[in-house]
Structure formats: C-alpha cells, structure tokens
Amino acid sequence: MMSKLPGSTGISLLGDKSLEFYRDPITFCERRIEKHGSRIFQARLLNKSTSFVCSVQGMKELLCDKSSVFLKDPTDVMTYMYGDNIVTTNGEEASLLRLSLMNLFTGKCLASSSDYIKSVCERSLKDLSSSAEPQSVYPIFKRLGSELVLGLFLNVKAEETPEVFEEITHLCTLHWHGIISAPVNIKVPLWSSGFSTALEARDKLMEIIKEKLELEQEGFVGCLRALPLPDASCASQHLLLFISALIPKALASLLTSFTLALCGPGQEEVRERARQDPRYLDQVLLEVQRLWPPFIGGRRIASQDTTLGGYHIPKGSATMYVSYTVHRDPEVFHQPDEFRPERWSGRNAGQENLLCSLGNGPRNCIGMQLNHVFLKAVCGYMLQHYGWALSPSDQSLQYKWLPVSRPAELPMVIFTPLHDQASPQSHGNTQDIHTHTCPHAEARKGTSD
Ligand code: HEM
C-alpha cells in the first residue's frame, strides 16, 4: 500500500516555508522529523510541493535506484547564473558531458597538479604560527581554495600575476552574490540590483575565460580544449562553473570543520594518529564530511508519478535530500552526533558510499577525487607542521548552513609549530585537556537555533 507523505504543502504562497527553511534548514528538518516520526516528509518550498529526504535509505533510492525518475531541474537558478551546463542537464546529454569532463579530474590532469597543490599549501600555511597570534582560519582556507582553483583550472597563479588573480577572485564573488540573492525572494519575482552586478561580473569572467581558452595550450585549459564537447561555448561555460566561488567556499568549510574537530590539547591523540597513519586521516576526513557537509543537499523533480520510501510522490513535485540529516540518520550511524573517526574502520567500514556530501549515484560530484587530493594535501600539511587550539577557548561555534556551511562567527585558532611543542599551550582551556572531548562537537550538540 502506498501511503501519503507526512506533512502539509499548504496553499500557494501563503503556505510557503522557504523563509523558515533558508533561515535555519537544520531546525526546519529536525522539528518535522520529530513531529511526523518520519525522515521523509513534505512541505512547500520555493512555492512548490517538496518532499524532504533525511534518511540514508531515502537518499539512496532518490539518487541511485530512481535516478532516471528524479531529474535535475533545468530552471534551477544555477542555469540563470552559469548558463547551460552539466549541473542542470539530464539524460544522454548529461551522460556524455560527464564522460568527457571526468577526464579532467582523473589520470594525467590530476597527476600533474600535485606539485602546484603542494606549493600552494606551503605558501598559504607556512606562517600560521609566526605571529604567535590567533588566526581566523576560514578566510585563510578560502584564499587557499581560490589559489588552488584558479591556478589549476585557469592557469592564473597568485604568486605570478597577483592583480589578475585578485580581479578574477573579486568577479567570482560578485557573480556568486547574484546566486544567493535569488532563491529567497520568491515573493518578489524581479531580480535585485545585486543580480545585474552579478551578470556584469559573469560577462567579464567569460571574456577572461575565452581569452585563456584561445591562448593556453597547457594544463587543465589545454586538456579542456582537447575534449570532444558538443559546441564552442561548452568549454567556457564549464570553466565558469569550475572557477565559481562555490568550490573555494566548500573547501574552506571542510578545512575549517577539520581544524575545529581536531582543535585543542584534548584532540592531540587524534592529530598524532592522523599524522602517522594516512588511513586514519581518511577516516577523520570522512567523519568531518559526515558531520559538517558544506552543501545542504540537492534538489530533483519527479518526471512521473512514483514512490519514495513507500510514499506517493506526484509527477512534477520537487524532492530535496538534506545531507546534514541524512548523515545523522541513527539507523546507519550510531551516536550520530558524535565525532568518531573509528566508526569508519568498525561498524561503518566500507560504507563511504552512504554519504552524500558530494552527492551520490550517477550524478555525484565529478570533482570528488580532486577534492580528496586537496583535503589530504592541506590537512596533511597542517598535521605535519602544527598543533592548534581555539583561542579564546569559549568561542561560539554555532554553524550557519546556507548557502555554504560554516561557523557563523569566524573561529580564531592559535597554531604552535610542532617541533617545539610537546603539548600545545592550552590558552586557558584546561577543560579540554582532561575531558578529551571535541569542543566543536560539544558546541554543536548544545545548539539548535
Ligand atoms: C569541497 C568540494 C566539493 C563539494 C562539497 C562538492 C559537492 C557536490 C555535490 C553535493 C554535488 C551533487 C549535487 C546534486 O546532487 O544535485 C556535486 C556535483 C558536481 N560537482 Fe562537486 N563538489 C566539490 C568540488 C567539486 C570540484 C572541485 C568540481 C570540479 C571542478 C566539482 C564539480 C561538480 C560538478 C560538475 C557536479 C555536477 C555533476 C552532475 O550534475 O552530473 N565539484 N558536487
């Protein structure tokens, strides 16, 4: 028997819950999961009936088993901002694009990036402890992410052409602001002035990208030129997507969460193990992605009447998987709010494919491998060179989740060079030394604003 989805989608506009969702998507979902006793429920979002998927099983059904029924939305705001591209395309066109573009993120292209990645880590992170002052890590990681992305994808290197690097970074930020000004204004269908600034920024970025594509033979741009793509604008549209501010923001989010999860003398043992054992570092990184996924999730449209978790889903309605809640599904992840890297060699060994921080199934992230290379390089560098602690120790680590997750107030962290620290200074945080808790996890547990 097919049953009706719990929850209500109300009436058009008045019943819309977009503002509530965008203000605090986690509480939005947690409240409804509890109220309906179900990790799949419905509400009205962006003035459309939307089912929310917060269970591992539901996410797998949506993104894997029924990926040919639940399709990407070609009218998504991504299409307005980035033009036609793989993210909002479906069917054979999407499969062919994926096949072509995947070449860029594996094998030769990826192998040739490792020296550059190392040099960016060294340059960005070598002075973390030199002033002996606490550092605001998020902007440092975001800049590092922009250097990786622009250097690898566009051959624009901050140390060689700093003005060009700064200009492109600025344009990417303006362009990005156009996207985030869009979705909440559902009751005002006119685009804000931020949107026209964003379009101007996009035009300037496209000029720069086209020039690069004409002139450069080497590296990623050279590889992209050589791909069999359907038309002339395809390469430039995708470069625009790859250099978007989203990727440095997502990287900075994960790197900040990693830093906080391993913060303080209480986590010294975890840092030491991760420093010695690359497999354990992988487990730490899985656990960071599980607890603090950068993106809230992804959206699909049902192309026909169907079911999800046994519930009826009507044709044309939207479905959204919410990574944060999927990753804390207690059916699969015991003590889901605890930071426990060991779960990945115990009960959850071999279950990495139950995460969805990089999507899942045939439309998962094509930058997955590259992302792993970035994370390992940066986290490896930090572990090899520093111990670190929050300073001051009583900062609010409450996260905001949209548009990209990070602590709402940027955390300050003090770094101690590894060679002259037997145990990092506690900076007044004596509690951590004794309890061996992760201040990050503690702070999250106590908040549900
Ligand atoms: C921390 C870094 C990253 C995160 C968290 C991330 C996350 C994601 C997620 C969640 C999806 C699936 C979206 C959905 O289900 O609707 C996705 C897809 C995608 N990602 Fe990433 N990504 C990251 C890095 C990258 C990089 C470095 C690239 C390449 C430059 C990239 C390119 C893509 C593309 C092209 C898709 C769309 C694939 C398709 O629609 O078939 N991502 N990513």
From TrEMBL:
GO terms under biological process: sterol metabolic process
Annotated Polar residues bias: 422-432
Signal peptide interval: none
Compositionally biased spans, kind Basic and acidic residues: 433-449
InterPro entries for this protein: Cyt_P450, Cyt_P450_B, Cyt_P450_sf
Superkingdom of the source species: Eukaryota
Matching Pfam families: p450
UniProt KW keywords: Iron, Metal-binding
Region listing for Disordered, in residue ranges: 420-449
Gene Ontology MF terms in the entry: heme binding; iron ion binding; monooxygenase activity; oxidoreductase activity, acting on paired donors, with incorporation or reduction of molecular oxygen
Protein family: Belongs to the cytochrome P450 family.
Protein name according to UniProt: Cytochrome P450
Species of the source: Alosa alosa (allis shad)
High-level lineage: Eukaryota, Metazoa, Chordata, Craniata, Vertebrata
